[in-house]
Amino acid sequence: MEIERINENTVKFYISYFDLEDRGFEREEIWYNRERSEQLFWQMMDEVNYKEDFTVEGPLWIQVQAMDKGLEFVVTKAQVSKDGENIELPTEDGETVDVPVDKKIENMLEDKYGTSGGNNDESEEEDNLSIIVSFRDFEDVIQLSHYFADFTGSAEDTLYHYNGSYYLYMEFSDELLDDDIQEDFISQVLEFADDTDVTIHLLDEYGKKIFEADTFAQVRSYFPVEV
After folding, report:
1. In angstroms, rounded to a whole number, what is the distance separating the alpha carbons of residues 209 and 203?
2. What backbone torsions phi and psi does residue 182 show, to the nearest 5 degrees?
3. Which of 5, 82, 141, 144 has the smallest number of Cβ neighbours within 10 A?
4. pLDDT of residue 174
5. Other CB atoms within 10 Å distance of the CB of residue 158
6. What is the pLDDT of residue 176?
7. CB 155 within 8 A of CB 171
């Protein structure tokens, strides 16, 4: 995928149909399957954010152009006006252009792909807290696993290897751990690991899963404490 940073608020990227198929998508479903088109888009945005530090906050203005050998995306960050009736799009000269909210441009790829039919309302359930940390050396993973030898598994975890480093994804269950315990646990993890901007979508797409679950217990079984 080719990425070009236009300015602070706008980024342009291009994906060929060959690259699209290598990611597990078919050309036809991108045009007719709304769910799959959004899945592809957010995978690409994760990669853009990782490479260009283009953090998505608030609504987006998205332009998609179908070309002979691929798709070109131009994504611009926007803001909702104070009265909530317009989307304010920044221009190259530093000014803004107002677009009515009722055009729903903040709804990802709405104009290009249309609606998929049915009821599109989604419940706004609060997600469980999750983190991704990186390790400079696998020895740090081993030490962390023994440090949490009594860890009861109140979180989902997966260990990845990507781009020469190890990454641990953890998702905590609010039903099993309260906020204070979660924060304390994370602070202890960060004594052995570093915080990272790498996303779970990027790791799932390009990383290699070392342990899909019960990482600490499995690492200890392969690397027991030497007596």
Report:
1. 8
2. -60, -45
3. 82
4. 64
5. 21
6. 53
7. yes
Type of residue numbered 69: K
Q: What is the pLDDT of residue 175?
A: 61
Q: Which residues of the chain have pLDDT under 70?
A: 58, 78-128, 151-154, 173-179, 226-227
- pLDDT in the model for residue 21: 86
Residue 40 in contact with residue 25, Cβ under 8 Å? yes
Within 10 Å of residue 22's Cβ, how many Cβ atoms? 10
Residue type, 111: D
**HSE-CB of 102 using CA atoms within 13 angstroms:** 1
Residue of 147, 130, 153, 143 whose CA lies nearest to 214: 153
The backbone torsions φ and ψ at residue 219, rounded to the nearest 5 degrees and listed phi first, read -60, -45
Please report the pLDDT score of residue 151 as a whole number.
64
Give the burial string for 115-138 (b: 16+ CB within 10 Å, else e): eeeeeeeeeeeeebbebbbbbeee
| Per-residue H/E/C for 71-115 | EEEEEEECEECCCCCEEEEECCCCCEEEEEHHHCCCCCCHHHHCC
135: nearest Cα among 106, 164, 112, 110: 164
- Tokens 């980024």 belong to 11
pLDDT at 172: 76
Phi and psi at 188, nearest 5°, equal -70, -40
For residue 184 the two structure tokens come to 């304390």
Write out the H or E segment, with its range, that includes residue 211. Answer: strand 208-211
